[in-house]
Every structure is written in C-alpha cells, then in structure tokens.
Amino acid sequence: MHTPAITGTGVYTPEQIITNAELVTAFNAYADRMNAANAEAIAAGEVEPMAPSSEAFIFKASGIERRHVMDKSGILDPEVMHPLLRQRNDEEPSVMAEMALDAAKAALAQAGKTAQDIDLVICAASNMERAYPAMAIEIQSLLGIEGFAFDMNVACSSATFGIQTAADMVRAGSIRAALVVNPEICSGHLEWRDRDCHFIFGDVATACVIERMDEAKGPSFEILSTRCATQFSNNIRNNNGFLRRSRPDGVADRRDMQFMQNGRKVFKEVVPMVSQHIAKHMGDTGLSGGDLKRMWLHQANKSMNDLIGKKVLGRVPEPQEQPNILQEYANTSSAGSIIAFAQNSDDMAEGDIGLICSFGAGYSVGSVLLRRHD
Ligand code: CO8
C-alpha cells in the first residue's frame, strides 16, 4: 500500500467579471421588457409581473459580490441572457478542455511533474459539454498523457469524489499519479432569467495532482482519509439530457433543463447532513474539531459555511480557519472547495491538519482529511 498525497493544485480564473450591480441592471432590464410585453395579461391578472432583483438581497442571502465568467456579453444582454460562446469544430479543443488545461498545467508545475509522470486523468464536474468522447480523454490527449482517463459527475461533490477515486488507486498501486480536473462552466447551465438563482454561479477550472507521497518533489498534503456520502433529493435538479427530443411538449427551452433548486430546503437539510458527516468522519479517524487548522468548505453560501464551521469547531471559526472565496467567484460547483484550498494552504506548517469538504446536488457530501508535510 502507498500513501497518497496532493502535491500540486491549479486554478484557471476566467478574465471576465460580472459584479452584482451589473448583473442586477441586466436582470431588471430583462424583467422590464417582459413586463412591458405582457402588460395586457398582467393587467388582466393572467400573468404575474416579474419582480426586480436586488444587490442588497444577493449579498445578504449569499455573500456573493461578483463572479468570473467565460462570456459576459450574452449574459448581460437582456435579449440574450446566456453566455455566447464561439462555436468550435470537432478538431478544436472544446471549451471545458481548454479551461481544464490551464488549471492542469499549473497543478503539474506546482507538483514539479510532467505529463509523463501521470497515469490517470479524471474530469470531475457538474456537467459535461457533450456525452462522449469523455472530456477527460480529450484533456489527456491535449496534455500528452499516456494511460487512461474518464469523466465523473457528482455535481458539487465531483472534485472530492474524484480525489477519493484517485487516492484509492494510488494507495492500491494501480496508478502512480493522477490529475483530477474540475472545469465548471456553470454559466452555461444557469437560468440567468430567474431572479431566485441568477446570482448564484460563476465559471472556473481547478486541478489537483495526486500521487504517492514518497514521490513528492516539494511540500505535500498527505491524504489521511476520504469519505463520500449520497442521499437522493430532488431539491437541486437539472433535467437536461439526450432524451429531450423525445418529450412531447417541445424541446427548445424548458425551465427544468437548466439549474433548478429549492434553495431554502437545501440550506436546511444540507447543513446538518454535512456537519454530521464531518463529525463522524473525523471521529472515525481519531480526530476532533480541535485538531483542524483549516477547513476548505464548498462555496455555495456564506451563512451555510459559517453554520457548518461553527458546528465542526464548537465555536465561531476565525476567518483564516475557514477561508471563503465565494465573494469573488460565487458558487463554482465542485471547484469551490478546491479554489479555497489552492489559495489558502501555502502557509500551513508541517503536521497541520485540514479538511476539504464539498456538498450539493444528489445530495452528495465528500470530505478529504489532509496533513501538511514540508
Ligand atoms: N432579489 C431580490 N429578492 C429576491 C431575489 C433576488 N435576486 N431572489 C429571491 N428573492 C426574494 C424571494 O422571492 C423571497 O421573497 P418572499 O419572502 O416574498 O417570498 C425572499 O427574497 C427570500 O427568498 P429565499 O427564501 O429564496 O432566500 P434565501 O434566504 O433562502 O436565499 C439562497 C436564497 C441564496 C439560494 C439560499 O437559499 C441558499 O444559498 N441555499 C443553499 C443553496 C445551495 O447550497 N445549493 C447548492 C446548489 S449547487 C450544486 O449542488 C451544484 C449543482 C450543479 C451546478 C449547476 C451550475 C449552474
């Protein structure tokens, strides 16, 4: 058996930023247009007018201040309200592959590794831009990696489930090193015309190198233990898929083919599920909240993270103990906890213990306990 470790991380951050102010202006312009178009039906009481969105609500309810996206022009155009991405032919790198490459190269560089050192690529993300060939195999090919690759989708928990999968293979000896990449183009499957959720997501890609700890070329995070859990819920759902053309009621733009959630229920049900999951995972590993130097939690909602952090530590965490990045990136699905980890772990000291924990649709929860080695 070998000891697995995370030895490199990378984050690709799209250059374009949408502030809450820009987002609300675009949404409200869209709502005004719809209300004008439906004026008669609204006056007759047949259609509810669209209510405006507000910056103050978004910040208070979520903690989000801005988000990075691959294309803001379409999202902010009241006549479009979705990203406009250049259509590519099949010989060009696909959007997700291009996003993943950037993060993957940064992770490899930090680990001091090259493509020749990697045996496996897992593309773990909330949605794949096509059914097949696997995104992971395209990324493997673009990086010049031999071995094998596959896709995984566990929504917001994709990265932690991917880390467990790779760590188990390293431990068993079936691979020496893996690259787990999380290209999240959330802007493509968010309904920007729905004020309940139009502020929630952003785009990003993250990557981790996972390999035998004794082959690390620099500081590493030993993977002490991982744990995945799922429990079926319809409270976060996206019904898009290849069966759309078989639907008798049309195919073009049904609301349930984008991200749908009952946010309040998710909040109420997921906070206890995650707090108990972490407590049990740590207890079974012989650890308690007091042993944790840092928690890199999933980045969906600041209040959710504050509650979970308090339950796990038994006190209000100091900001550096539980860093949030959602104010800058919004929810980036599976990549959120990995951004928090990548950007807030360099200062950890030899022997410090930390926890990555993701949670989301499924429901799914994934936790990874790490120990720093210099
Ligand atoms: N502006 C102003 N008012 C608003 C707005 C808005 N934009 N939106 C809603 N309101 C109003 C509502 O209509 C409501 O009014 P009323 O009280 O009159 O009915 C009031 O504000 C309160 O609304 P909510 O109850 O919805 O507000 P909450 O305080 O519950 O906050 C949140 C909403 C922020 C969504 C919160 O519930 C939350 O964060 N919940 C948890 C969500 C979560 O963690 N989800 C995980 C999803 S991510 C995941 O698993 C990955 C999925 C795959 C990725 C998909 C990529 C697109």
Features:
alpha+beta; single chain; 374 residues; Peroxisomal Thiolase, Chain A, domain 1; two-stranded antiparallel ribbon
Query: Based on helices, strands and strand pairing, what is the structural class?
Result: alpha+beta
CATH class of the domain at 222-373: Alpha Beta
* Oligomer designation: single chain
Largest sheet: 9 strands, mixed
Per CATH, the superfamily of the domain at 222-373 is Thiolase/Chalcone synthase
Count of distinct strands: 13
Report strand order across the widest sheet. 5-4-6-7-1-8-13-12-11
Mean pLDDT: 96
Architecture of the domain at 222-373 in CATH?
Answer: 3-Layer(aba) Sandwich
Unreliable spans are none
Radius of gyration over alpha carbons?
A: 21 Å
Note the overall shape.
Answer: globular
Query: The CATH topology of the domain at 222-373, please?
Result: Peroxisomal Thiolase, Chain A, domain 1
* Number of helices, counting only DSSP H or I runs of 4 residues or more: 11
Distance between the termini: 22 Å
Strand content: 15-25%
How are the SSEs placed, and which strands pair?
Layout lengths: L3 E9 L3 E4 H18 L1 H5 L11 H8 L3 E4 L2 H4 L19 H17 L8 E5 L10 H9 L4 E5 L5 H15 L4 E9 L17 E10 L7 E11 L5 E2 L22 E2 L1 H22 L7 E6 L4 H12 L12 H4 L6 H8 L9 E8 L3 E10 L1
Parallel strand pairs: 4-5, 4-6, 11-12
Antiparallel strand pairs: 1-7, 1-8, 2-3, 6-7, 8-13, 9-10, 12-13
The site of octanoyl-coenzyme A (CO8) has 29 residues, from α3 and α8.
Report what the structure shows.
With 374 residues, the protein is α+β, with helices and mostly antiparallel strands. The protein is built from eleven helices and 13 strands. 33% of the residues lie in helices and 23% in strands. The strands form three sheets. Strands 5-4-6-7-1-8-13-12-11 form a nine-stranded mixed beta sheet, sandwiched between helices. A two-stranded antiparallel ribbon has the order 2-3. A two-stranded antiparallel sheet has the order 9-10. A hairpin with a 3-residue loop joins strand 12 and strand 13 (364-373). Helix 5 (95-111) packs across helix 6 (135-143) and helix 8 (263-284) runs parallel beside helix 9 (302-313). It is globular. The chain binds octanoyl-coenzyme A (CO8).
